[in-house]
Amino acid sequence: MGEQILIQLNKLRKRTYAILCAIYMFEFLFAFGVMLLMSRFEDGLYTMIILILSIPMFILTYQYINPVIMKTYRDAYKNEVIPYLMDESLESIKYNHEKGLNINEIVELDLFDTTVSYKTEDLLTGTLLGINFQCADLNVIGSGRNNQQFYGQWYVFDFNKQFKGITHIIEKNDMQLLTEERSSFHKPAGDYINDLKRIKLANQAFNKWFKVYTNHEHYAMYILTPHFLENVMKLESRHYGRLFISFYKNKVHIAVHNANDYMEPPLNEEITKKSFKQHADIKTIKSIIKELKLNVKLFFD
């Protein structure tokens, strides 16, 4: 990426940041001024009313005005930076910030309640080591008290061979993925999820952080090699969110539940080539896919 593009993006970032700061400052000074004026009255009821009304004003600004002001900067960042990042590591990459994943492929994994709604955007499609893949931000919202069931990045890799059965790797203490509270389980979470049995691997460090469920233990052992498990732990160590990997049909799903828009541009910090953290993740995922590709070739051929 050229320095001129970085300069232009940083100018746009600073201008967007300044506009947002000016709007919030105006709202604060307006609310403060009105309260100061009303404080001259002996009855403090007016001051309290202004204070209460100012709270939804800030909330509405954050929810509706903020996205409108950010749109130009966000679109410019994603259209310039993301393709550059992916071209560095991936093959035949395409990016569309308005499109998302095929939700049916996620629904058929039977990980979430049937009543949830899905929102997905920032779709990346391309080829990694000869394997077609898709990646996008995914937001899964359910009903009830804890309605945020998943919010993060979801990768789908297409292999030209069918995996037997289904295998899930789930980082322990995940927020909503496959929790005991899920009423749609055919069997209680623990040693079983639906008809998938929990298995333990020889790697004790891996067992400490992850649970593995499968309905084809013999098959799973060929895929989950020691080197593969090390790469999974390496990927997990760089994320504060929870990691999930699934093998089903001819697809490998890798998801990070981190309550974060991975492609969201920075607003209050300088944009530099060194600040692009996606490179390290892509490198590790590349190692995982390389290992899987080798394992699948040895096992199926």
Walk me through the structure.
The protein is α+β, with helices and mostly antiparallel strands and 301 residues long. The chain has two domains: 83 residues; 208 residues, no CATH class. The chain is built from seven helices and ten strands. It has a ten-stranded antiparallel β-sheet. Helix 1 runs antiparallel to helix 2 and helix 2 crosses helix 7. It is globular and about 80 Å long. The relative contact order is 0.13. InterPro entries: DUF3137 (IPR021484). It holds the Pfam family DUF3137. This is Galanin protein. Keywords: Membrane, Transmembrane, Transmembrane helix.
Q: Topology, please?
A:
Elements: H1 3-38, H2 45-89, E1 91-96, H3 103-107, E2 117-128, E3 131-141, E4 148-158, E5 166-171, E6 192-193, E7 196-199, H4 204-209, E8 210-214, H5 217-223, H6 226-237, E9 242-248, E10 251-257, H7 278-300
Antiparallel strand pairs: 1-2, 2-3, 3-4, 4-10, 5-8, 5-9, 6-7, 7-8, 9-10
Helix pairs in contact: 1-2, 2-7, 6-7
Q: Top keywords for this entry?
A:
transmembrane helix; 301 residues; DUF3137; 10 strands; Galanin protein; transmembrane; 2 domains; 45% helix
